[in-house]
Amino acid sequence: MTAHKTPNKLIYEKSPYLQQHAYNPVNWHAWNEETLKLAKAEEKPIFLSIGYSTCYWCHVMERECFEDEGIAKLLNDTFINIKVDREERPDIDRTYMSALQSLTGSGGWPMSIFITPELKPFYAATYIPPKAKYGRSGLEDIIAQISELWQSRRSEIYESADKVFQILDRKSYSYIDESRELSADVFGMLFKKADSLYDEENGGFGSGNKFPRPAALNFLLTYYYHTKDIRALDIVRYTLKKMRDGGIFDNLEYGFHRYSVDEKWRVPHFEKMLYDQAQISQLYFDAYLITKEKYYLVTAEQTLEYVSSRMTGSCGGFYSAEDAESAPDAGEPHIKEEGYFYLFEKYEIEELLSQPDAGIFCYAYGIFQKGNTIHDPHEVFGTRNVLYVCNDIFDTAKQFGISTEETEESLNRSLKILKEYRDTRTRPSLDRKILTSWNSHIISAFAKGYRVTGNRDYLMRAEKAADFLLKEMRGEDGSLYHRWIEGERKFDASLDDYAFFVKSLLDLYSAGFNPDFLRQAFVITDSAIKKFYDRKIGGFYDSDIRNPEIILKTKDSYDGAEPSGNSVMIENLLRISVLTSEKGYKEIAEKSLKQFYSQLEKSPFNSPYMVSDLYYLFNPPPEIVFTGNINNNDVKEMLDDVNKTFLPNLIIVHATTETGEALPVIKNIVKDFNNINFYICENYKCNLPVNDRKNLNILLKQIKTLKASGENNDI
Length: 715
Hints:
With 715 residues, the chain is an alpha+beta fold.
């Protein structure tokens, strides 16, 4: 269908998702005070549609329903229609996702919620077709039913909405069982659960769609570090290999797609998210530190290369996502297909590549005339092929009777030609929102990349992004904002923004040792405690409880595509308590863990990041304090030895007179700030300092040996 000629009020919004709907005939409004007052004034229910710019089914519902003049008239006559970008307003999204899951037993996007003018939900669904199909009610029928009820039996709708709200409110309330003691036993329980869910054949967890789940894989690396149980490491190594070899990884331009729609990591949902690149690259860096296998290092570097080339703004911040859909015909940009940019017909490859390169490439990447997309949920892929590693370089070399070097040269030639050809296609749209939370993830990734590789470009990008957030995403009172687009910052930050940003500042300090980042981390942590911490029973609210537009006061502990704000905030507090020796931070962390402990015992796989926090509480990480000029070659070499050792949650401090003022505990350890000395401290006790690489590496090996022997280990 053609776009409506007259725009609705979304034309004034900067969100790419809202802009996509600005020319719908639906009279869309943004979520704001004016719109909410309008619903009350007109005594109309609200149709709340929540999605995001790279959401496939959001696009489908727009084409089928919101571009339809007849359905638009029904919606406009019956409701105040509100569009929300879930990435701009995670607080609203979280509230109504709770309602959707409670009412239907599942969740997803687009989210279609019908609420009273008082913002209480009474009907919820995800994708709704225009007419009944797929076993789903049609939007036309739903509108008619709600309209009739609103006119003749409105009190029943309000009664239903009140009951739903009461149920949700009870679920959001929790308490601490003071009789229960925290135990690190959950650490072992989670490993057993992860092991039972592990897919031995394909890697990852469970069957069906495969999601990377970085928090779970990070936990397994931490578990391996503390126990030296090789099973935990094997699960991660194999899963990372299957991910890298699968179609979920873009072999031409790098970076990972959101997830696969099959169990083999073969056919992805093609959107690329910033938070995935950030978390997955860190996983591969850690796998390299443990195994020293360059395969993992190269994959991590390639992932950050993609972010640098495609998701970096000139301001220093990072964009949010690339869409899954693109236009096959540049002349008709509104007609798009899932995955079109990334897929190839076999004849295209054979026309582009000469022989024997074409044959070698098709064998290595599993290219067939009939196509290789083993799962086509939307029936759009046809005979096209996704690039995935079907046969490795050794099998391919053997098949064609050539050396592995010749095979590699052939494949690299082909990949270059195919990328140049693909670059002539219309690219998927780029969501240029800059979000504090997701930018914080990628700052941590570039900081880790610098520590592992010494690539100063990584450090520069991380510091530039942090400076951007500190300058552009803070108000005059020091509060954070959530979203920035084209010079406009908007929306109060949530717990996720504060927690992830503090973590990134601590990570960035550990990479470049700029003390200002450390000071800012402390300031923002104190602000987060004031704004979100529940002093009565512990835990952090996900959003500012003073906001009247957020009807549910939730405390999320689920570590899914991203870790929860509570999980990361607790880790931050434990790190800062070690840095400062201030017990108050540790007490808040412990009280918060008690708030969630019954959930951790019941469903540890839901919160692997927080389970690691619990273990952190019982087993404080090693702390390295060093002195000397940071530009001194000996210092650089010794730091490189530290950074190339896998030490999860390591706290490292460059002791100077300046950091000595910020961290008084440093003065108890260091007397001479000028000469080179490295102190390794564990359980608040420090070894005598060493000033050469040989003795430093002896101490680093001793740390690893202690962990392997199980000393100070409560599992």
